[in-house]
Specification:
Blueprint (H helix, E strand, L loop, with lengths): L1 E6 L10 H4 L25 E6 L1 H4 L4 E8 L3 H5 L1 H10 L3
Antiparallel strand pairs: 1-3, 2-3
Length: 91
Amino acid sequence: MGVAFGRFLPSDAYADVKSEIVGTYGNQEHLELTASTAAGRPIQCIAIGINDQSVDLGPEELFIEILGVPYPDFEEIFPEHVAAYKKLFPD
């Protein structure tokens, strides 16, 4: 299982839950968040966390963590993460 994180690029639907996200990082299970790739492929995972600091720090301050993405999905969806890991820990 893998973990991925990075900038969050929300869809229009984010506006419906933004007020619940801001200030609730780490306590978002009740929102039943889902994630998908840019191509629309759903990403299976154990949990998703959105850290939205955009109100205080600007629109670039939205980040997402996707936890527990199963293999081989992780390698297919995030090949750059796997390549970076293999570079850090060869063999």
